[in-house]
C-alpha cells in the first residue's frame, strides 16, 4: 500500500510492478501508469475503471491466466496467488459438499463457455458463489462475456484499492 503522491513519483517500471498483480492485462497497467501524475485517489480509480471499459473477450482470456479456479486456492508465492487465496478466504475449504459442487460447476462452466469461471470472490460466501455459477450457466455467450468482464473489473479495482491509499 503506498500513498498517492508516492505512486505519482515512482519510476515507471516500479509503478508498473506495483499494480501488475491487479490484473494480467499489461496494456491496462501501462496506460494507468502513463496517466500519472493523478491529482486524487478518485482520479486514479475513475481512470482505472475507464480503462477497463475497453476490455473484450481477448482481454478476458489474457486475464484468466492469472486467476485460479474458484475453490482451487493457488499454490505459489506470486502476489496474484496470495491475492487469490485472500479473496477466496470465505470459501470454506472444510465443506466437502461445497467443494464438490464447485468442482462440478466449474467443469460444467468450462465445457459450456470454454474458459475458467470468474467471479469477484471477496465478500461472497461459497454458497453465494455456487448460486452465481449456476445462474450464469444459463447466460448466452454474449451475456456471459459481459458478466465475466464485469467481475474482472470488480476484482481489478478491489486489488487496486489495496495498492494505493490516499
Ligand atoms: N476464478 C476466479 O473467479 N478466481 C478469482 N476470483 C477472485 O476474486 N479472485 C480469484 O482468483
Automatic annotation (TrEMBL):
The keyword Cell wall biogenesis/degradation belongs to this UniProt entry's keyword annotation: no
Q: Which SUPFAM superfamilies match?
A: UraD-Like (SSF158694)
Q: Which GO terms describe its molecular function?
A: 2-oxo-4-hydroxy-4-carboxy-5-ureidoimidazoline decarboxylase activity
The enzyme class is lyase
Quick one: which pathway? Purine metabolism; urate degradation; (S)-allantoin from urate: step 3/3
List each copy of the Oxo-4-hydroxy-4-carboxy-5-ureidoimidazoline decarboxylase domain by range: 8-161
This protein's record includes keyword RNA-binding: no
Q: Which InterPro entries match?
A: OHCU_decarboxylase (IPR018020), OHCU_decarboxylase-2 (IPR017595), OHCU_decarboxylase_sf (IPR036778)
Which UniProt keywords are present, listed alphabetically? Answer: Decarboxylase, Lyase, Purine metabolism
**EC annotation from Swiss-Prot or TrEMBL:** 4.1.1.97
A Pfam family that this protein carries is OHCU_decarbox
Q: Please, which domain of life does this record's source organism belong to?
A: Bacteria
Signal peptide annotation: none
Which reaction is catalysed here? 5-hydroxy-2-oxo-4-ureido-2,5-dihydro-1H-imidazole-5-carboxylate + H(+) = (S)-allantoin + CO2
PANTHER family, alphabetized: 2-OXO-4-HYDROXY-4-CARBOXY-5-UREIDOIMIDAZOLINE DECARBOXYLASE-RELATED
NCBIfam families xrefs: PRK13798.1, UraD_2
What's the protein name? Answer: 2-oxo-4-hydroxy-4-carboxy-5-ureidoimidazoline decarboxylase
Organism this protein belongs to:
Enterobacter huaxiensis
